[in-house]
From TrEMBL:
Transmembrane segments: none annotated. PANTHER family: GLUTARYL-COA DEHYDROGENASE, MITOCHONDRIAL. Residues 242-389 form the Acyl-CoA dehydrogenase/oxidase C-terminal domain. Pfam families: Acyl-CoA_dh_1, Acyl-CoA_dh_M, Acyl-CoA_dh_N. Gene3D superfamilies: Acyl-CoA dehydrogenase/oxidase, N-terminal domain, Butyryl-CoA Dehydrogenase, subunit A, domain 2, Butyryl-CoA Dehydrogenase, subunit A, domain 3. Residues 23-136 form the Acyl-CoA dehydrogenase/oxidase N-terminal domain. It comes from Thermobifida fusca TM51. One of its GO terms (molecular function) is flavin adenine dinucleotide binding. This is glutaryl-CoA dehydrogenase (ETF). Belongs to the acyl-CoA dehydrogenase family. Its EC number is 1.3.8.6. One of its GO terms (biological process) is fatty acid beta-oxidation using acyl-CoA dehydrogenase.
Length: 396
């Protein structure tokens, strides 16, 4: 007769044991970022959200740099060269605290630093990447404009040659870290097509204005960039960036981080709801005992674990060099939608308490409204998947 009692019951906080397949190094990254987030960020993030800013972005950048989180997936120039899954785990743990904090790291590493690393000259890499990796310099990424969000090819910002120099004129919108950045990666149309330029803060004609009155992603700094006859030497141009494919490739890197980040936001909301439901009593028993609450928790745990599996699988594909940008669109679309469902259910489990900053659920729900929009809206990623499965583009 067998004496086996069968497998252990699932862990409610990792129901499908997704993290059991992580390597020791990946677990170390997970634990380090999670502990840092809970110690250094979580006690303050509700206050930052209420204030609508990050009080000391340069200090925060240096802390992220000390942890090796800035450009952590890049090689050389002071960057750790971590694997895709390790980077994803860092994004997951940061967004479990707040989407704005993951966005800070994502814009720095996956957008600004990746653009310089992939398309910059050796001089540009040496000048900026080590400082950015250490958090001694902050970068931003100027692609979106007031009249061209989902259609970046319709951008109106222009760069024209004047002698040996370039002169840039235009406006960029919704730029994370724009007003605190030491350098902006700005994309502009030229006679030869779209090109990228490095615009240092303080360049004459270049201004950044903080966008106020946001109701989402408030623990983050968002700005509009204005370029009024900004004159730059040709050495400011990213020499290997030609066409729209260059900035879009950077967006794919950022979207990959969002796939993991959304899983983190979903997990945080589910964990908060589970704790609340098992401790909050009504009608003489915990609300977790009621069928309707259990259904919400069951649906949440399914979404959380499916999102985690999607993120991990895409990470393994990425590490194998086999992850197509259509698959990243799949992950972004699926995981953000899952996180929104989880956050909404978690808010309802919390009842009236769920609308306060004493609990994280509505903060995450509001943030996810932005996450669903930036780096490609739900509609854009839906059409990307439609094009992938039919071979027919519905964009034009």
């Amino acid at each position: 007769m067998s004496t086996s009692h069968g497998p252990a019951a699932p862990d409610p906080l990792d129901f499908l044991a997704v993290d059991s397949s992580l390597s020791a190094e990946e677990r170390a990254v997970r634990d380090t970022v999670r502990e840092f987030g809970r110690r250094e960020l979580l006690p303050h993030v509700a206050e930052w959200f209420a204030a609508g800013t990050i009080p000391d972005p340069h200090g925060l950048a240096r802390k992220f740099g000390q942890l090796g989180l800035l450009g952590m997936h890049l090689d050389g120039y002071g960057c750790p060269g971590a694997g895709a899954v390790a980077y994803g785990l860092a994004c997951r743990e940061l967004e479990a605290v707040d989407s704005g904090l993951r966005s800070f790291v994502s814009v720095q590493g996956s957008l600004a630093m990746t653009a310089i690393h992939r398309y910059g000259s050796e001089e540009q890499k040496q000048q900026w990447l080590p400082r950015m990796a250490a958090g001694e310099a902050i970068g931003c990424f100027g692609l979106t404009e007031p009249d061209s969000g989902s259609d970046p090819g319709a951008m109106r910002t222009r760069a024209r040659r004047v002698g040996a120099d370039w002169v840039l004129t235009g406006t960029k919108m919704w730029i994370t870290n724009g007003s605190v950045a030491d350098v902006a990666v700005v994309w502009a149309g030229t006679e030869e097509g779209i090109r990228g330029f490095l615009v240092p803060a303080g360049t004459p004609g270049f201004t950044a204005t903080v966008i106020e009155r946001k109701l989402s992603l408030r623990a983050s700094i968002t700005a509009a960039l204005s370029l009024d006859e900004v004159r730059l030497p040709d050495s400011a141009r990213l020499p290997l960036a030609a066409g729209l494919r260059a900035p879009l490739s950077c967006l794919t890197e950022a979207r990959y981080g969002i796939v993991w980040g959304a899983a983190g936001a979903a997990r945080a909301c589910y964990e908060a709801a589970l704790e609340y439901a098992t401790s909050r009593e009504q009608f003489g028993q915990p609300i977790a005992a009621f069928q309707l609450t259990q259904r919400k928790l069951a649906e949440m745990v399914v979404d959380v674990n499916q999102a985690s599996l999607t993120a991990l699988h895409l990470g393994r594909l990425k590490e194998a060099g086999a992850c197509h940008h259509y698959q990243v669109s799949f992950g972004k679309l699926a995981n953000v939608a899952a996180a929104q469902r989880v956050a909404a259910k978690a808010r309802s489990v919390h009842g009236a308490n769920g609308i306060t900053l004493d609990y994280p659920v509505l903060r995450h729900l509001l943030n996810l409204e932005t996450v669903a929009t930036y780096e490609g809206t739900e509609e854009i990623h839906t059409l990307s998947l439609g094009q992938a499965v039919t071979g027919i583009s519905a964009f034009r």
